[in-house]
Structures are given as structure tokens and as C-alpha cells.
Amino acid sequence: MADTDKIKLLFVDDDPVTASILQRSGENKGYYCQVIQSPLKVVAHIEQQGADMVITDLRMPDMNGFELLTQIRSQWPDIPVVVMTGHSSVENAVQAMKLGAADFIKKPFDFDELDLIIQRNLEAIRLRDENRQLKKQIKRSNNRYGMIGSSNAVKTLFVQMEKIAEASCNVIINGESGTGKELVARALHEYSSRAQQPLIVVDCGALSDTLLETELFGHEKGAFTGAIQRKTGLMEQSSGGTLFLDEISNISDTMQTKLMRAVDSQSITRVGSTESISIDLRIIAASNRDLQLMVEQEEFRHDFYYRLNVVSIDVPPLSARREDIPLLVKYFLKKLSIQYKKYYTGFDAESMVRLINAEWSGNIRQLRNQIERCAILSDDMELYWGGHEVQNPRVNRDEKKRVQFVFEDDQLMTLEQLEYHYIEEVLRTTDGAKTKAANLLGIDKTTLWRKLQRYNKNSENY
User: Fold this and answer.
1) Is there a contact between 280 and 263 (Cβ–Cβ < 8 Å)?
2) Taking residues 339-368, what's their average pLDDT?
3) Residue closest to 141 by CA, chosen among 151, 131, 127, 126
4) pLDDT of amino acid 282
């Protein structure tokens, strides 16, 4: 590997013997190492040649490690700095970390110990860069409005959103649960002329009529038992901006009437008051039920429906945009890599086919849940998904190796024998990882070891 392709470490130490040992040890590990004995030359060196990481002594003439750390962090905040010293103390460690040091190590140390710190910080850099790249991808054409997709269904949705965003009219968003209706509502607000004003979200299905009324309209002090002070309602708080009423199909006929009057007059009256308060409000409503059908069946007020349904947007279900699933999988795995600090290469080909062809009644929300479950349970960078019924991807990866006990009348087992065979099978599925096997069995590792000893089995053979 050429030096330009290697990780570039810059060691700063005024002791030439220590500096030479560090350089030789680092090069033996495959790093491209450079040594500077004077901290005063470090800034010029980084400006000219750069560095992926700086490892500096703390006590040096002319400039100490704290001063150098501060200078590097102010000019190159993305370059991690590890501080090393033979005069370690808790105070020094705390001060270094407060100044932005990536880590702290005490002399003398084994280079393997330092190498672990280097690797940990390089992984953090990789995750940081992936996070930045992810944010850039979100801004691309197939990730507009924070929504992932390039299918015709999503492109049609984007066109609708572009036309509606700037209009200050009320909107109804139709779509199944988990399709991203709230994401659409937020995008309509953020790309509208009301973007600098608040967007307030209300889950209508989670509140009773009485509570919903006081939340939306507010109340005066003493309006009812427990009203110890005046409360400004959410409609008043969101004036100038947008009020997003999620699951609006759940509100009662009475509440629909009150909301309709407020929408018509652009004014509200707090509970317990007679004073009318003017508001300037755009309402975006969403439902996972067919509101038009509810109107036809007289389950939803037609006059309120038409006040809200100036324009409507239909968010496609995942079944109508299966070609977007690979993009969604990639997006979620990148986010999960950052969240769990693990790297995933993706799903194997067969799993990806299953993901694309599966029925997703919960849509994107359900897809993300399944991807996260696979990521948490997997020990490998490549993930496996066997279907909705699979709870442990690793155990079910090879269908031929499923645990199956067949009992013949003349070959019944004792409980101890049955326990042994089951433990043996769990150890096989975990590739001999006793800690993981113990967790799956619901026992601690010591108990597992004792059971294996009792069966006169050599536990090292698993």
C-alpha cells in the first residue's frame, strides 16, 4: 500500500528516543507515521501535509500539550488529538478532555493499547463522515423533503407537494399507517411561506373530547376544576404557522363542529371565556381511513370535510413503491450504523428479494422495525432476513439446521438428556459463543459452564 493511502499519524514528542519508538511501532502496524519534536512546528506541518490523527506529549518546552491541543482544535476540529504523558493525573485527564482531546494515555504504555485508541477514533471518524454523507444524500433529488425514493409513485408525490407547499390552503393527507403522513405534513410546512412560524402536531386519537378542546382552544383560569391558571391553546400558539391534526377521523361530531367554526371564522374562544381571539392558521389533517367514504356513510361531517379538503395528497403505501425498498434499506442501515456504532454492508441477495416482495401492512414504519431488529441481533456485517415470522435471524438462517426433536415411544429422553441436547443445539447456532448462548437460554455463563461440566462434556469443544 502506498504511503498516501495509509492512515497518517503525527507524533509530537520532544524526547527523540520515545519519538523514534512510536514511529517504528506505528509503521509496523501499517500506519504512515511522522514525528515532530517541537510543538511550534506542528501547525505549519499540518497546513502543508495534513494529518489523520495527532498524538502529542503533554509536557514539552516552548508549548505544552494543552496549548497545542487548543490550537489544533480551533483550526482543525475534525482531527482527533490523543494526549500522552508520564505525569498522568485525574486533573490532567479532565482538563485534556474538556479542551477536546479524543483520548488520554499514560506513559509507559504498550503500543497495542495505543492502537486500540487509534482504531476507536478512526471508527468514530468513519461514522462521522458517513453521517455527513447521509445528510448530503437527503438533499438529493431522490431524497427530497427528507423522504427517500425514486419510484414513479414517490415522484408523483413530490410533484404534488411542490404545488401545494406554497399555497396557504388547508390540506388533507390520506395514507395507510406508517407511510409517512407526518413527514409530508412537516415538509409542506417547512417549504411554505409559514416555515418561520410554528408547526404544532396534535394526535387526535390520543385525546378525549374534553381534553382535546382545552388543548386546542385553551382555557381561562377557573373555567373548570383544576384550571388554576389561564392556558393558551394550540390553535392560538400555532397562529401564523401550521396546525397538523393527525388521525382526525377519530374526533367526535361535536368536536368537528367546533373546529369547523374556528376554521371558518379564523378565530377561537378559550373555554370559560366569551372573548374571540383572531388566528391565522393553516390546517393540515391526516387520516389512515378513507374520509370521503366516512362522509358518504355519515361517519364524518361533510361540511367539515369540505372545509379541510381544499386539496388532498395521497401518500402511496410501500406496496405501490417496492422499487424504493433497497434505497430505504440503505438509508436506514446508515442511520443504524451511526446509532449503534456498528458497520453493516447490507442484506444478502436472498434477504433483499424477500424484503422487496414481503407484505408490509405497517409500511415504512414496519420495514424500519424489521431492519433494526436484524441489525441488533446480527453479529455479522452482512444481515439476513428470513421473513416476518423469523424472530432470530441467525438461528433461522439455515432452515436445515432448525432445532427439531422427534420422540419415539421406545426412545424417550430424560429431562437431563433433553436439556443437554437443547444446550448443545443453542451452542451450535451461536458458533460456540457461550455468553450469547447463556443469554438465549436465560441463564448466566457460570450456570452454563456448570451444566456442561455435569454432563461430563469438555466445554471447549463447542
Assistant:
1) no
2) 92
3) 151
4) 93
Task: Tell me the three cell numbers of residue 296.
Answer: 358518504
34-92 residue pLDDT tens:
999 998 999 999 999 999 999 998 888 888 888 899 899 888 888 999 998 776 566 77
Nearest to 363 by CA among 179, 157, 149: 179
Q: Which three cell numbers stand for residue 29?
A: 502496524
Give pLDDT tens digits for 166-206. Answer: 888 999 999 999 999 999 999 999 888 888 899 999 999 88
Q: What share of the chain is helix, strand, coil (3-state, %, to 5)?
A: 50, 15, 35
Report residue 260: phi and psi, to 5°. Answer: -60, -45
Q: Strand 282-287 relative to strand 242-246: parallel, antiparallel, unpaired?
A: parallel
Domains located in the chain, CATH noted: 3-132 (3.40.50.2300), 162-315 (3.40.50.300), 319-400 (1.10.8.60), 403-461 (1.10.10.60)
Distance of CA 53 to the CA centre of its chain: 28
In this structure, are residues 137 and 143 in contact, taking their beta carbons and an 8 Å threshold?
A: yes
